[in-house]
Model the fold of this input.
Amino acid sequence: MKRNITKYRKNDKNSFIQMNNFQFSTLNSPLLKIHSYESMGTFDGPGLRLVVFMQGCNFRCLYCANPDTIDSKGGKETEVEEIVRMAVSQKAFFGKKGGITFSGGEPTFQAKALIPLFKRLKEEGIHICLDSNGGIWNKEVEELLSLTDLVLLDIKEFNPARHLTLTERDNKQTLATAAWLESHQKPMWLRYVLVPGYSDFEEDIIALGEYFKNYRMIQRIEILPYHTLGVHKYESLGKPYLLQNIKENTIEQLDRARELFSRYFPVVYVN
Done:
């Protein structure tokens, strides 16, 4: 969700000269479709981060806080170097832990266009975080993940039937993506939105823990409390919000979920 949008300022002559050695590698790169940006973000990965919200998503989550990012036809077409310059201009604030995070929407929806950007960010020494539902797989996604430093993998629900109800998609590929990250030694944080009556079933959280308990690349679990901050966006889009009667989590519900996850994982946060 947007909190502080950063506007891009045209580069000066010195900045153009600095990137001149790399401009040929991205000159013919596909344009990216960007919904918005957040500068100095603290909720999407370690440290202070530039968060880039991508346009387009393959899931249809009932609680989606950014329904305006779902349609792939939206967003502003943006060149790779524009985002590189934006990230480099904020690099001094990132420190040792920060960097850039790609969220959405679903970033892997634009994997082919992101690959040249990730390569440029690597050249600039910027830490790359990818917030993904893990539901898309092709050779471009595989290459994109190989260039990523940390994946925030969204597990919507572990039970296949309930996952389908919640997202209109199955979770087979999400679990396969987690297995790929584990086998390729890619660090990940598992993120779990706790929606009352939809993803707060104790037996499902326990089953998830049993499934992932031997994974070594899972650095932490993030429990994301359900909220209704994006409901007004559905109204502006003329779409119904189907979880109108669902209340936000109680402290007791969040504490119980944290206790269940803590049985299997040493680091569990409520974000």
